[in-house]
Write a structure and sequence with these properties.
Layout lengths: L5 H30 L17 E5 L6 H8 L3 H7 L13 E6 L30 E9 L10 E2 L5 E2 L11 E6 L5 E5 L7 E6 L2 E8 L4 E3 L4 E6 L4 E10 L5 H34 L1
Parallel strand pairs: 3-12
Antiparallel strand pairs: 1-2, 3-8, 4-5, 6-7, 6-9, 9-11, 10-12
Length: 279
């Protein structure tokens, strides 16, 4: 009869089973390493954009398989939707469409707000700063309604060739809203009268000429003042003539009339004399 060593056989079977169990455990661990993402990586589905697309930005070391396992989107969907090649080649920073969702809801339209109680306007400066308005009442010696002025390279008036300012007049600047009103007397020279720290708005600008002058332009205008700007306005006036040429002509006219009458009488007398002589 053949003797069978059952004890040795059991030991061998135990080793084989233990080896198989070890191989199965290692295989499962290997599959988990390749199939599951790192436990430290979390993914929150991005909010759909205005067009409803859900975008995933490729990170360093990403692959299509890793993105698929991370987002739950199939590799085929990634390839077809984003027009990738057969190898699903991607690069870091690339934006991939991983789904289509509803676009974010628009914020609710606010209802009508209560009408504020109107308050008295103040001269509070608006954004951009206060403005400056400069007004000139010039001696329009040629009466053309335009100021002839020479300036240097810095824009300063030059006396030579410049029609001077008419001294003794007055300039007024008044806002149509009633928040600003100033009047200045005109001094002799070439420089205009300037109003500073003027709030923005619509203004009435007017001039008053002194005695001995007649205006050659309109002496009242409206002006839109913008924040931080410098505006210029010109008014013209011409001195009244103390001895006009027309007056001299009129003064000499009676003398010529008397002389003409004397000559006429002389002519008539000569005609009568000649007529009697012929008789």
């Amino acid at each position: 009869m053949m003797n069978v060593n059952f004890t040795g056989l059991k030991k061998k079977l135990s080793r084989v089973v233990a080896l198989l169990l070890t191989l199965m455990l290692l295989s499962r661990l290997a599959l988990n390493v390749h199939a599951a993402p790192s436990a430290q990586v979390t993914f929150t589905t991005p909010t759909p954009g205005a067009d409803g697309r859900i975008i995933y930005t490729v990170q360093e070391g990403d692959s299509c398989l890793r993105i698929s396992l991370l987002t739950g989107v199939s590799v085929d969907y990634l390839t077809q939707t984003n027009h990738l090649d057969v190898n699903c080649t991607i690069r870091s920073g690339q934006e991939l469409v991983i789904g289509i969702g509803a676009p974010p809801a628009a914020p609710p339209t606010p209802g009508p707000s209560p009408t504020p109680t109107p308050s008295t306007p103040t001269a509070t400066p608006v954004s951009g700063g206060l403005a400056e308005v400069c007004v000139a009442l010039y001696n329009d010696s040629n009466g053309d309604g335009l100021r002839q002025a020479n300036t240097d390279e810095l824009g300063n008036y030059l006396a030579d060739g410049t029609e001077p300012i008419v001294p003794g007049g007055a300039i007024s600047l008044t806002s149509l809203s009633g928040v600003y009103s100033q009047t200045q007397t005109i001094a002799e020279g070439l420089d205009p009268v300037c109003f500073v720290d003027v709030p923005a708005g619509e203004y009435s600008v007017s001039a008053a000429v002194p005695d001995g002058f007649n205006p050659t332009t309109e002496l009242d205008t409206t002006l839109q003042v913008l924040p931080g700007d410098t505006s210029f306005v010109n008014f013209g006036a011409q001195a009244k003539s103390h001895l006009p040429v027309a007056s001299e002509t009129q003064a000499r006219s009676p003398l010529f009339g008397i002389l003409g009458a004397v000559l006429l009488l002389v002519g008539i007398g000569l005609g009568i004399f000649a007529f009697r002589t012929r008789k």
